[in-house]
Amino acid sequence: MRRALVAGNWKMNGSTDFISELMAELVAGIQTSDVDVLVCPPAVYLSQVKSLSSSLISVGAQNVSENSEGAFTGEISLSMLNDLGCNYVILGHSERRSLYAESDAVVADKFIATVTAGLMPILCVGETLEEREEGKTLEVVGRQLKAVIDVAGIEAFASAVIAYEPIWAIGTGKTATPDQAQDVHAAIRAMIAEHDAKTASAIRILYGGSVNASNAAELFANDDVDGGLVGGASLKANDFIAICHAAGA
């Protein structure tokens, strides 16, 4: 039985006061170990969040450099994340791919570096609305997965999480129906199974795309949906706590 994971991607939001209040509410409201809970704040607040967190709430980063150190102004290395006690790193988020031109190859390099450093990557894959309407969802997702598998090897996925994020549902209020989510999640698991059935059975596949307190339970009820990568709702303590409870139900 795969253990559910709910990850909050705070994106470029927050302040010291806001985070102090949010973390106090999350720590008080998340008292069950039935589900893994993760928050991913902006990098400048990682230390603060780590200091305010509890043993039931892990802390992760929204991005990382594939380079170990050197003259890379503005970048953050995996050794720095390890130093701060981070557990996870979100990789290949659609915003990184589209706004900052991160290619499949760059995402693959970051994936390898993250696994090698002992952190767990959350590999994001997903299609645009145009690609879905053209029936290319599985082609796009398959390409994004293959780019990583070909370089990292399927063995690396034993220490990874996948997040299916239909780009057309991120921050738009639109959400894939439970059936749409299940279909793609099942297809992703089948793609992994083509390389290794054991890894496919064990890997957690999260759904991301306007997950909220109202739709979480129905999405998480699907056999191949193992939790969520939550955006806006992760900035609202009551909503995020409700989503966590839905995943652990």
Short note summarizing the structure:
Pfam families: TIM (PF00121). The protein has 249 residues and is an alpha/beta fold.
Which features characterize this protein?
43% helix; Triosephosphate_isomerase; TIM Barrel; isomerase; 8-stranded parallel beta sheet; alpha/beta; single chain; triose-phosphate isomerase activity; EC 5.3.1.1; 8 strands; 249 residues
What's the N-to-C terminus distance? 14 Å
* Count of extended strands: 8
Q: Provide a count of the helices.
A: 11
Instruction: Count structural domains.
Output: 1
Sequence of secondary-structure elements? EHEHEHEHHEHHEHHEHEH
Judged by helices, strands and strand pairing, the structural class is alpha/beta
CATH evolutionary superfamily: Aldolase class I
By CATH reckoning, the class would read: Alpha Beta
Shape call: globular
The name CATH uses for the topology is: TIM Barrel
Global Rg:
17 Å
Q: Biggest sheet, open or closed, and with what strands and sense? A: 8 strands, parallel
Strand order of the largest sheet: 7-6-5-4-3-2-1-8
Residues in β-strands, percent:
5-15%
Helical percentage:
40-55%
The low-confidence runs, each spanning 5 or more residues with pLDDT under 50, are none
Question: How confident overall, as mean pLDDT?
Answer: 95
CATH architecture: Alpha-Beta Barrel
Function: Involved in the gluconeogenesis. Catalyzes stereospecifically the conversion of dihydroxyacetone phosphate (DHAP) to D-glyceraldehyde-3-phosphate (G3P).
Keywords: Cytoplasm, Gluconeogenesis, Glycolysis, Isomerase
Subcellular location: Cytoplasm
Family: Belongs to the triosephosphate isomerase family.
